[in-house]
Amino acid sequence: MKPSIPKGTRDFLPGEVRRRNYIFDVIRRYFHRYGYQPIETPVMENLSTLTGKYGEEGDRLLFKVLNNGDFLGKADADDLKNKDSNAVLPQISKRGLRYDLTVPFARYVVMHQNDLAFPFKRYAIAPVWRADRPQKGRYNEFYQCDADVVGSDSLLYEAELTQLLDDVFAELGLRTVIRLNHRKILAGLAEIAGHADRMMDITIAIDKLDKIGEAGVEKELRERGVDEAAVGIIKQFLGATSLDSVAPLLQDSAVGRQGIAELQEVFATAGTLTNRLEFDVTLARGLNYYTGCIYEVEVDTEAHPGIQMGSIAGGGRYADLTGIFGGRDLSGVGISFGAERIYDVLEELSLFPADTSEDLEYLLLCLDDASLAHGFQLQRRMRRSGLHTDLYPTAAKLGKMMKYADQRNAPKVIIIGSREVESGQYTVKNMRTGEQEVVGF
RNA sequence: GUGGUUGUAGCUCAGUUGGUUAGAGCGCUGGAUUGUGAUUCCAGAGGUCGCCGGUUCGAACCCGGUCUUCCACCCCA
């Protein structure tokens, strides 16, 4: 058979793993520096934990795990006969792969609330799965790097997470735009437009502004059943590019005014950043558990022209997520870095540091069996003194072994023959410069 | 989930209106060079043309299905 892997998944070569680890290491370092603690949860959750948390679209994208045993025998015969997938599904699948790290975290907090000190700050770097149709920068299996705080509604955390996003991307050498909006501003907008109950429809439409333009948004709004008067009001918001210009439009909405006030505070406390921090009234974010401030980070195309990539990080505040799992109502706020997209962008911009190559220091090449036995002992001594050492495992032709050293990108090679065994002095060849020197170990 | 697109050697790709034995570059193996790689020269190996079926005297090429890739929509990191 021809080997293959499921679509939307990937294997990684050693060099790719090293570059991915570089990204994870940077992110983890800043998570630690900001006081977030690591936790782990299973890759599988009960399906009931996951369904209904991400909207209708999210449910469709959940990977379901088939029950073990005679799962069809236990399913309702009529539902099977009618080919009613929705009715059969809960009967044949009770588990699913996690779709993100936030909902499992909320479940975790409720289950362990007596063991945690609040505000509880945690991070997780782990794969998640979405049954989406794959595209560039969109995979069925990908890593998210999440930092969340639960148990406080202090806006200082919104500011802190903004700084965390800024620090990580500054360290990675990637210029980004950190866009902020507030669900309460969007709620206020819907209220002012006379469609308080249609907030999702309205935000989904205006979120497409940069893609389909103002006329396209108007068309989309009408298609979603928004009346002309409301479309006119919403148009005013689309032209407002700053908090100060949106604030007067929300004068008559209490919830809108609150959103403006909170965002003003976040902007004020976040301070000076390396990356661009911008208010964007058209930023919507689909995950429907967000209730407050929402974030989205994209590559700054002014600093990096020609980069086409969706959001590379995102997040927001969710006030009610733990309540869904029957816990106390603990407000949470968090961000998520999309490691694969960051990888693709860094690769495209050649922003990976050069020294993510293998950290081998010495490769030992032995010319005959006696030298090989000697070399193996030498390797032991070198490793014990902390040198990263490897040994070619047979006494092959030197040319062949040198070629292997070249492919391994070994910086230094030690050639061991009868002369070296006798004298205990070794010729060390620098593979970069070609120079050789005699050294004793 | 909807519509489109892609698939030929390990990799990147040629391949004429359907016609004998499917090519190139790079890589790989061996040799020139039995103590020196990345350079040079010579030789060689490697492909059921994604998979299944159909049309045809004959299919890498035409048709259907399927898987995969990428793109748009949906949504999203």
Give an account of the 3D structure.
This protein folds into 2 domains: 14-37 and 108-348, BirA Bifunctional Protein, domain 2, CATH 3.30.930; 358-440, Anticodon-binding domain (Rossmann fold, 3-Layer(aba) Sandwich). It is of the alpha+beta class and 441 residues long. It is 41% helix and 19% strand. The chain binds one RNA strand of 77 nucleotides through helix 3, strand 6, strand 11, helix 15 and helix 17.
Fourth CATH level, the homologous superfamily of the largest domain: Bira Bifunctional Protein, Domain 2
Alpha plus pi helix count = 18
- Residues in β-strands, percent: 15-25%
CATH class of the largest domain: Alpha Beta
For the largest sheet, list the strands in their spatial order: 1-5-6-11-10-9-7-8
* Overall number of strands: 16
What order do the helices and strands come in, and which of them pair?
Layout: H1 14-33, E1 37-38, E2 44-46, H2 47-50, H3 55-60, E3 64-65, H4 77-81, H5 85-92, E4 95-97, H6 102-111, E5 120-129, E6 141-150, H7 156-172, E7 176-182, H8 183-192, H9 199-206, H10 209-223, H11 228-238, H12 243-246, H13 254-270, E8 276-279, E9 293-299, E10 313-318, H14 321-324, E11 332-338, H15 339-348, E12 362-366, H16 369-384, E13 389-391, H17 398-408, E14 412-416, H18 418-423, E15 425-430, E16 436-440
Parallel strand pairs: 1-5, 7-8, 12-13, 12-14
Antiparallel strand pairs: 2-4, 3-4, 5-6, 6-11, 7-9, 9-10, 10-11, 14-15, 15-16
Helix pairs in contact: 1-7, 1-15, 7-13, 8-13, 9-10, 10-11
The protein binds one RNA strand of 77 nucleotides through helix 3, strand 6, strand 11, helix 15 and helix 17.
